[in-house]
Amino acid sequence: NRFDIAFTSEQESHIHIVFIKSRTLLEAKWYPVGTMLFQSLCSMVVGLECILRLTPDVYCDTMGAAFTYPVVHYLCNAKVVAYVHYPIISTDMLKKVREQRPSYNNASVIASSVTI
């Protein structure tokens, strides 16, 4: 067990891990322009799939898809917890946007735009 957390068999019977097919929508490779925006918007679709597959008492995010939290909380009143090592949007990404620096997923025409 990766996190060294011990559960009783009764507790384990209440834990369900669900594979989410739409999670590929969160991969940056699909969005060469507006990567963070589209990942954030698509994360709501992923959150919806999560609760349609299994309505949770507790929703645990491990991908950093924060836009899923209101979807899950308001549609099924679940508690939301997160353990995120590599978030979808990080402070270094936001810094590049703020400084208008082009990157592999932030074309110079977009990066230099004042309105975008």
UniProtKB/TrEMBL annotation:
<dbReference type="GO" id="GO:0006487">
    <property type="term" value="P:protein N-linked glycosylation"/>
</dbReference>
<dbReference type="GO" id="GO:0004377">
    <property type="term" value="F:GDP-Man:Man(3)GlcNAc(2)-PP-Dol alpha-1,2-mannosyltransferase activity"/>
</dbReference>
<keyword id="KW-0808">Transferase</keyword>
<feature type="domain" description="ALG11 mannosyltransferase N-terminal">
    <location>
        <begin position="2"/>
        <end position="113"/>
    </location>
</feature>
<protein>
    <recommendedName>
        <fullName>ALG11 mannosyltransferase N-terminal domain-containing protein</fullName>
    </recommendedName>
</protein>
<dbReference type="InterPro" id="IPR038013">
    <property type="entry name" value="ALG11"/>
</dbReference>
<dbReference type="InterPro" id="IPR031814">
    <property type="entry name" value="ALG11_N"/>
</dbReference>
<dbReference type="Pfam" id="PF15924">
    <property type="entry name" value="ALG11_N"/>
</dbReference>
<keyword id="KW-0256">Endoplasmic reticulum</keyword>
<dbReference type="GO" id="GO:0005789">
    <property type="term" value="C:endoplasmic reticulum membrane"/>
</dbReference>
